[in-house]
Amino acid sequence: MQKTTWRIGELASQCGITIRTLHHYHQIGLLVPSEFTEAGHRLYTGTDIAKLQQILSLKQLGLSLEEIQTIIGNPNYNPLPVIQAQLEILNEQIMHKEKLRHELEQLLNLLTHNQNVSADQLLKTMEMIRMDERNYLTPELAEKMRAFLGSLTEERKQKMKSLLPQVDESQKQALRKKLFKGELS
After folding, report:
1. Cα dihedral sign for 34, 36, 41, 45?
2. Claim to verify: residue 28 and residue 107 sit in the same structural domain
3. Domain extent at residue 133
4. Measured between alpha carbons, how far is residue 81 from residues 33, 63, 88, 162 in Å?
5. Least CB-packed of 19, 96, 168, 178 within 10 Å?
């Protein structure tokens, strides 16, 4: 028989978040369990799990809990673009990792056969490693993000400016130039 409800601890461990996070989501009204036991314990249903998936997806895209609440509270909200955005980000990351793997394989092949490795090859490999460490935004992904931002109201654009990834100041400046170039001035 298929399970229809999950206790808070079960749900937290199965989706990799803390019980405290679920308590917080309940407290702010973002994710209120559909059911409760006679003793008052939270019980989450499949509908609640679908909503949690949407919350976590939007959070991964950098939105605040307040914004997420507004978005998923909208009766016209469609989760498909969010899932598409996640897939695009994942595909970009996979593509970058494949390029990095290719560079490392070439480097290994040269070193294995005692061939000289040019400084350019080493620099290119190091750059790709650093980009991977920083979860680098490719120009294509930055363009997609600019298109998304272009569809927002000015108020929403200003709010989005504050949602840049938590990175060091030089990375923030580079991201701002790519993401907000001319659109948010």
Report:
1. negative
2. no
3. 80-180
4. 25, 14, 10, 22
5. 168
Q: Quick check: 165 pLDDT over 50?
A: no
Task: Using the 3D structure, point to which of 23, 41, 73 is the last residue of a domain.
Answer: 73
- Taking CA atoms, 107 is separated from 95, 136, 139, in Å, by 19, 22, 26
Residue with the bigger pLDDT between 141 and 83: it is: 83
Overall domain count for the chain: 2
User: Pairing mode, if any, of strands 5-7 and 35-36?
Assistant: unpaired
From 26, 55, 73, the end of a domain falls on 73
Residue 65 and residue 94 in one domain: no
In Å, how far from its chain's centre is CA 103?
A: 26
CATH of residue 59's domain is 1.10.1660.10
173: pLDDT strictly greater than 60: no
Beta bridge partners of 43: 7, 35
The mean pLDDT of 42-67, rounded to a whole number, is: 91
Q: Is 134 exposed, middle or buried (0-12, 13-18, 19+ CB in 10 A)?
A: middle
